[in-house]
Amino acid sequence: MREATIPSRAGAAATPKVADGGTTRRGVLASLGADGIETLMLAVAAGATGSVALRSQVAASAADVAVQLFLLIGVLSSVRPSDDDHPLGYGRERFFWSFLAALGIFVGGGGFALEGAVRSLLHPSVPDHYAIAYVVLGVSVVLDGFALETGLRPLRRQAARRGISLRTLVRRSTDPAATTVVVGGASGLIGGLVALVGLVVSQETGSATPDTVASMLIGLLLLGASAFLLHSNRELLAGRGVPLSMVRDMREVVAAQHGVAGVPDLFAVVLGPSSLIVNGDVVFDDELDVPAVEDAISRSAAALARRWSSIDYVYLTPVPEARFPRGGPQFGPTGPSDRDRARRD
User: Fold this and answer.
1) What's the whole-model pTM score?
2) CATH architecture of 242-344
3) What 3-state DSSP class applies to 208?
4) Cα(26)–Cα(18) distance, rounded to whole angstroms?
5) Do 213 and 111 form a contact (C-beta atoms < 8 A)?
6) Band (11; pLDDT cuts 50, 70, 90)
7) How far apart are CA 184 and CA 41, in angstroms?
8) Which of 56, 154, 161, 221 has its CA 20 to 30 A from that of 110?
9) Of 22, 11, 314, nearest in space to 175 by CA
């Protein structure tokens, strides 16, 4: 059979999944509102108390405002329909803007917090007006908890629907905006509690050291969060594939279709948030004519889309036999097809 690639649209890739985008947008807007209020309150409290930990929280909160703006741009730009310049859509726009958001957390949050801690070590100053700090930090923790819960709610539903843990979902999520909202919210919540503890210990001991240590811990926390987000977004921008277990399941779905003799190669790549493209080589029975092959490919694409709603495009290439693998044992054939075994016999 002559080799050819026959594409099949498995879903509406030209129109990104609005429900996911709307849910993420609500989470980003909730975080943006909370961060804006927090920044103003924390700035006032930091000026009144002189606490270096509060100044670190001001930097982190101000950086979060910029981060949420980056995320909002990414969410809005990624839902544009496909066109001639971007035939597979603009889903990766969200990856780019989320990468910039992670850089903002690294520089604007973690870097400033550590710089303030070092300056405080060299020139220590005991905070005062603790009551103001406690009230502002308490409100800040509540706002961060609200933003975090808003971001976690859709992720919990998604994790339950897919039968995986929330931790696994966050680590393997293809929506970096939602991940950033959750990681940023958790960092803000933990940072607020650390600052609160630092102030309490400073008040009890009359020393500036606990406040300085709290600022240092907040900086390290933000650097760790940004490193995780930078790594995740770099993988998505580079064209991350799906887990090998999922690839094996996809190959089994295609191999189960009538007329398919073997699936020597198949892979899936993340196009955007909740959007995948599947490409592979398929060996068909010799007695199939071209219309029958096209029908088998259409059935394969439909079966894949029923199993995984995130699949938007399927490109399957009929081949006479397994071609040289693309590289690595995970890309090798699942085994010889029945026709290949018959030829050897």
Assistant:
1) 0.73
2) 2-Layer Sandwich (3.30)
3) coil
4) 12
5) no
6) very low
7) 18
8) 154
9) 22
